[in-house]
Each structure stands twice: as structure tokens, then as C-alpha cells.
Amino acid sequence: MGENTTEVPAEPGPAGQLRALGVEEGGVLLVHASLRGTGLRAEELLDALRTVLGPEGTLVVPAFTPENSDTSPAHLALVSRAPDPAAFRAAMPPFDPDRTPCPRMGRFAERVRTTEGAARSDHPQTSFAALGARAADLIKGHALDCHFGEESPLPKLIAAGAQVLMVNVGFAVCTAFHFAEYLVPPRPVRTYRAVIRDERGGSTWFAYQDAVLDDSDFARIGADFPAEHVRGGPLGRRGARLFPIRAAVEHATAWMAEKRY
């Protein structure tokens, strides 16, 4: 007579799906998410991620505000619809890490940003928000004149062995690839301008030089990303991908060095 065995049922819901993908308990996770069509609410996904990451884990999201830069298409579109463009620009509020929303990043990023205990970096156009044990350490020191380079949170995420989770989005929005743009010479630069708070608490336009950012080939870079680094699976009613940020940056750096320049 054979030995009786009892199968352990799979963990239900999005938490079980995240564990099946390989999200690491106690790890650092950078999440890009579009909830449309997933059947998941922002609070539901956040709860599942915090459950899987555990008390020692840290969740990071892009909290970008492209509309706060007069060199971005998002800002130019707003100005084009304003009855008085000059008055619109003059009335733009300064970036405030504690209050400025990031609606273009989607419902999930905004939910993370507004959760009690979340920390946010200081960059007026490409800030990151984080929640968890290492949140403050990972996002501090984000220089105002550095989108995604050495003085951004990305090197810290790489050093921390972070994973990247992409929920219902493609590699075209993979922020990790931007760090590679700082590593491949020649590194062209341009002038950016954003509204920040001045010393008296008012607003002022801040101009700075930083790398030219180009995500037009990110989908191609992602298509060539070796499959051995990427785990895919369902999340809600859509799919998700998980991969190490270091592998993504190393791949993008080599790809750009060969095919961009």
C-alpha cells in the first residue's frame, strides 16, 4: 500500500501569483504597473506585494512628473491647451515631494506615493517613491540635476540586488534601461528646466544639464533581453515579467554600445 501524501494548495490570489513569479521576500522590488484589464485594484496589488516582500522588503515605483518640465511633450501639450501660455507657466506650482501627484505613472504608483510611510526622492521631473524597510535610504540623495545617473536611486537599486516587476506593460517603459544611457560613451547632454521651490518658499524655474534620454529603442532592447533572465506569468487577468535589475542594465549597456553609436 503506497504512502499517503497531501498536496499543499497553492497560495490564492495575486500574492500567490507574485510568489510563483519569484518575487523575493525581504528584497527590493522596482514596479512598473498598468492595472487596466488586470482586474486588480491598486490597494489589492499593494497589499499583495507587501505581503510577499514582508516587513524587511522594500517596494519602489517611478513617481515621475514630466508635466513639470518645459522640455517634455507632456508639458508642451498642457501649454498648447492653455488660453494664456505665459500665465499658465507663471502659475505652475513648484515640485513638492510630499504633495505633487504623479498621475501619468498610473493608479498603482500614485497609491504607493500616498501611502503612509512612503518616501519620495527630490527630483522635480523623475522622482521615485518607496515604501518599506529601506525606502528612505534608497531614494535619498537624488540630485536635482541627475535624472537616472549615479546620483539617482538606480545605482542603489542595483547594489541592493533589486528585481524589476513589470505588470501589464512592455520594456518600452523600463526605467532601468535609462541608467545604461549614462554608461555608454559618448554621452550627449542637453538643458532641462523644471519648477522647484526657492529659498523663500516660492517657485522658480531651475535649469540644469543632464544626459539626453531616449527610450525610442527600449522595446527593441527588451526584445533582445536573454530569456534566461526573465520570468513571466499571470498576475490578475494579465501578465507580468520579473527580472534582476543588474542583468537588465548590463544587457542594455552592451546593446547600446553595439547598436546606438
- Major pleated sheet: 7 strands, mixed
Could you give the distance between the termini? 68 Å
Taking Cα atoms only, what radius of gyration do you get, to the nearest Å? 20 Å
Overall strand count? 9
Structural class: alpha+beta
Strand and helix order: HEHEHHHEEHHEHEEHEEH
Question: Helical region count?
Answer: 10
Strand content: 15-25%
Helix percent reads 25-40%
Query: How do the strands of the widest beta sheet line up side by side?
Result: 3-4-2-1-5-9-8
Broad shape:
globular
User: Low-confidence spans: pLDDT under 50, at least 5 residues?
Assistant: none
Q: Quick check: average pLDDT?
A: 93
Family: Belongs to the antibiotic N-acetyltransferase family.
InterPro entries: Amioglycoside_AcTrfase, Antibiotic_NAT-like
Keywords: Acyltransferase, Transferase
Protein name: Aminoglycoside N(3)-acetyltransferase
Question: What is the element layout, followed by pairings?
Answer:
Elements: H1 13-21, E1 28-33, H2 42-53, E2 58-62, H3 73-81, H4 85-90, H5 107-113, E3 119-120, E4 128-132, H6 135-139, H7 154-159, E5 163-167, H8 176-181, E6 189-197, E7 203-211, H9 218-223, E8 231-235, E9 238-244, H10 245-259
Parallel strand pairs: 1-2, 1-5
Antiparallel strand pairs: 2-4, 3-4, 5-9, 6-7, 8-9
Protein name: Aminoglycoside N(3)-acetyltransferase
InterPro entries: Amioglycoside_AcTrfase, Antibiotic_NAT-like
Keywords: Acyltransferase, Transferase
